[in-house]
Amino acid sequence: MAKDKLKFNSRTIHGGQEPDKAYGSVMPPVYLTSTYAQSKPGAHLGYEYSRSHNPTRTALEQSLASIESGNHALAFASGMAAIDAVIKLLSPGDEVISTNDLYGGTYRIFTKVFAHYGVKFHFVPMGDIDEVKKHINNNTKLLWVETPTNPLMQVIDIKAMSILAKENQLMLAVDNTFASPYLQRPLELGADIVMHSATKYLGGHSDVVLGALVVHDSELANRLAFIQNASGAVPGPMDAFLVLRGIKTLHVRMQRHCENGRIVAAFLKGHPQIQKVYWPGFSDHPNHEVAKTQMDDFGGMISFVHKDSSLEKAVSIVSSLNVFTLAESLGGVESLAGHPASMTHASIPKEEREKTGVTDGLIRLSVGIEDSEDLIADLAQALG
Ligand SMILES: *Cc1c(COP(=O)(O)O)cnc(C)c1O
């Protein structure tokens, strides 16, 4: 397909897309239908029932495959439903090695749902490849990577993980939600599965919940499509349409997220009341070199700790912001602030949390695409 030879900033708009065959509509129609007429049993136009396939979802899946440099994409009702489908590839007794600084919901489904089905999970600091190697045994099937990690912005070397995975015949899955394909395309670095919460940067407007998986391998795609249809956690056509529309401006939004992220990170770093700022774009970030190689820029996700690292101080800062909205989630056009310990990471036990650095004083920002001067002024007043 010629359109897949286009550059990234054109594939967000044209990748996998053709004007609709019926009337030439430039955007795919929202096919609000559960079923499709057959002229005789089994004779149909490629669509039978909307849990299995829906043309609006197909358009989104083709766009996702194109921007992640994959051959196949599958859309799910949420990011968690996409993760759920990946783990359902496994059997009791199988083992997974995952980052220890992990999205709270991922940690929860691993430990509170799939552990009961006999799948064993190891949470290790994946920046240290020897730590990962130590946990590989004959039952290991999957490496689960999130990079940059949430909320501590560690960067894990995807290429190094893919080499390790290949040496040991493991699958490598990368949660690419934080970076988005604008910044990093894990399939190009050797990953087998890319997972997205499209709720975040791909949708980009905080108006839809949706998940996705993208893969190269057709057999793996078939196995995942079987689970997608069998379990049925699919997005509706309206949600597919919203994410497709979001993707069309991904590159312009991300460019501004990165610009504003750079400005906000520098402001925080230079602020006398701030103890620590986590952002992979700093040259003294422990994984800066890896970030520079595998990412095209550093994004708008930033975490920081005030010199007064108490719970009360963090709560007072996030509560006094006016332009930043205190809310869960990230990746929308509007700037958000969050307090991981009591919000996104509340499902991780305090002990586990603190071991990995998600302390009570940590504040996470999703820097939006507003005027950076307004963002800085807002932070300045909240920090006092
Ligand atoms: C939000 C998020 C998820 C879960 O996605 P949902 O769409 O909320 O189900 C998974 N991983 C990361 C990194 C996320 O930020």
Short note summarizing the structure:
The protein is of the alpha/beta class.
Describe this entry's structure for a reader.
With 384 residues, this protein is of the alpha/beta class. It has two domains: 3-247, Aspartate Aminotransferase, domain 2 (3-Layer(aba) Sandwich), CATH 3.40.640.10; 251-383, Aspartate Aminotransferase, domain 1. It has 14 helices and twelve strands. It has helices at 8-14, 55-67, 79-87, 104-113, 129-134, 158-167, 180-183, 218-231, 237-247, 250-270, 288-294, 311-319, 350-356, 372-383, and strands spanning 72-76, 95-99, 120-124, 140-146, 171-175, 193-197, 211-215, 274-278, 301-306, 325-326, 336-338, 362-366. The strands form two sheets. Strands 1-7-6-5-4-2-3 form a seven-stranded mixed sheet, sandwiched between helices. Strand 4 (140-146), helix 6 and strand 5 form a beta-alpha-beta unit. The longest helix has 21 residues, at 250-270. The radius of gyration is 21 Å and the shape is globular. 49% of the residues are buried. The model has no long low-confidence stretch (mean pLDDT 96). Bound molecules: pyridoxal-5'-phosphate.
